[in-house]
Predict the structure.
Amino acid sequence: MKKIDEFNKERDRLNEIVMKYAGLGLKRFLSLDNQFYTEGALPAKTKEMLGLISSFVLRCDDCINYHLDKCNQLGVTNEEMEELLAIGVLIGGSITIPHLRRALEVWDDMRDVA
Amino acid sequence: MKKIDEFNKERDRLNEIVMKYAGLGLKRFLSLDNQFYTEGALPAKTKEMLGLISSFVLRCDDCINYHLDKCNQLGVTNEEMEELLAIGVLIGGSITIPHLRRALEVWDDMRDVA
Amino acid sequence: MKKIDEFNKERDRLNEIVMKYAGLGLKRFLSLDNQFYTEGALPAKTKEMLGLISSFVLRCDDCINYHLDKCNQLGVTNEEMEELLAIGVLIGGSITIPHLRRALEVWDDMRDVA
Amino acid sequence: MKKIDEFNKERDRLNEIVMKYAGLGLKRFLSLDNQFYTEGALPAKTKEMLGLISSFVLRCDDCINYHLDKCNQLGVTNEEMEELLAIGVLIGGSITIPHLRRALEVWDDMRDVA
Amino acid sequence: MKKIDEFNKERDRLNEIVMKYAGLGLKRFLSLDNQFYTEGALPAKTKEMLGLISSFVLRCDDCINYHLDKCNQLGVTNEEMEELLAIGVLIGGSITIPHLRRALEVWDDMRDVA
Amino acid sequence: MKKIDEFNKERDRLNEIVMKYAGLGLKRFLSLDNQFYTEGALPAKTKEMLGLISSFVLRCDDCINYHLDKCNQLGVTNEEMEELLAIGVLIGGSITIPHLRRALEVWDDMRDVA
């Protein structure tokens, strides 16, 4: 099983617990999270890249995984991913390098169709 | 065994290592950590909620677990916890959602008296 | 003129510019920002204190000023404020001390009815 | 004089002081800062948007101003800017709203050709 | 008047307001802040450099100014300062560059004995 | 097997994946990461301590482990390590305590020659 599929499965399991407790306000917030990434003046692909680099410089592995998956589905290439992550490392500094390693491990595993 | 009990056991084990190395200054800092949460002008329950939301927006799972346990002991209800975490997500942004998931998993497990 | 009144005036001026550009999604987000602090299972006063300490440990002076004003209006006392900020300094560390200074300057000016 | 021109002038003045002290390593780092934003697999415009949102969620006003200027020069529209900043606010949370206000003030001033 | 002297004067003014409100706990925290930087197994000069780089990567200008002053008093040279700040920029990333500019402006002004 | 050796082995494995994707810019950044810590106006030992405390206040366990290893190799004593970490906890606040626990566990294991 791909690392990203394990991640998504665990995410779904935990989201059920969130929904058990979430009130109206929190549900509204969570629904915004979907609305903001849809095709608009900016293409959905660009928006997912914006989401990815934000998650990267804020150093949240789960958020990185989520956007890596979306970027992959929307056709981001290896070269584009490398350039995006390089900017993330430059802005965020060497403190982000452990996240770079984990992000590329997930990406590499995701792209491996052997 | 509850998740929070496993967490507390591991915490105790590591605290012994800390005490092996801690000098006077560090010990004083660590003792402040207990003094600041005692009943005062603000009730202990409010103080633990302040500690929890601070830990949440700063995105430290171990700190979140610690204050979740205290909040539970001091009578925070599910509704109060949901409102607190909703404010945390709003202020801290969607980058905190993975911490919301993990916090509610621990809380749910803690409250489950089946 | 009180420092907080100058702050609120400037905030209103900038909010007009935000509204000139904000689309539906952003407007929804901004409206959530009001909804989450209303009286509920937790009193509005407690919610504003949660907003204040979150702003404090995340080190945002404008956000601190906003919640200081609300806390003052909702009856937070000097003793309660001191205990809240002490927890903020403890959790956030000495890096927050410049924000402590500025927060107490605004608070002191706000409370001064001479 | 436009706000961004004042900002750039002050930035140039301070960069001279930096260059007075910078050794070889620091100079290499600073030169990378230019290389990473050039046209590549990703267009320069996309790269500046990635730089802008990273600066936004990390809450650095000077960095935001720098990338706002570049985005403007590379043809980012008001609608694109709004969608970018909305994602930034969603991910970074309401703690970023003061930066949203200041960013849109600079952007509005920059776009004003009256 | 040197920039650092203006900074210290303003800091003293605000500290008086802090002392007007500070309770026992907060006073204890603030006194630790002095104790931890005294000569010990590590020289005071090294400790101030540790304080400076921490303040730098956490991006707090006031904290940076405070430790720049102490480093200057304890004999840190221009070359040592440059190497310290270069490591800070590398670890903290390009997001720290505006703080580098302001730090070197204060340092340059401090060292100028013309 | 020591914890640090497991950590280094995993790090090497992930670095191979990074090198598979890294372009020229990213490789240059990564090479700077080595250059900045060499003996200069500041001793290599001091530089590693600067790297450690920066990693500590920014709360990155992998970065902490990396610099703990280097500090150990360059002769940092238990007393020096304790003073460094105490300053880190003071500046970074109680939110860093879980990282203190994990850092001292790795350090204790590293120093244990029984």
Remarks:
- The CA atoms of residues 45 and 73 of chain C lie 9 Å apart.
- The domain at 3-111 of chain C is CATH 1.20.1290.10 (AhpD-like).
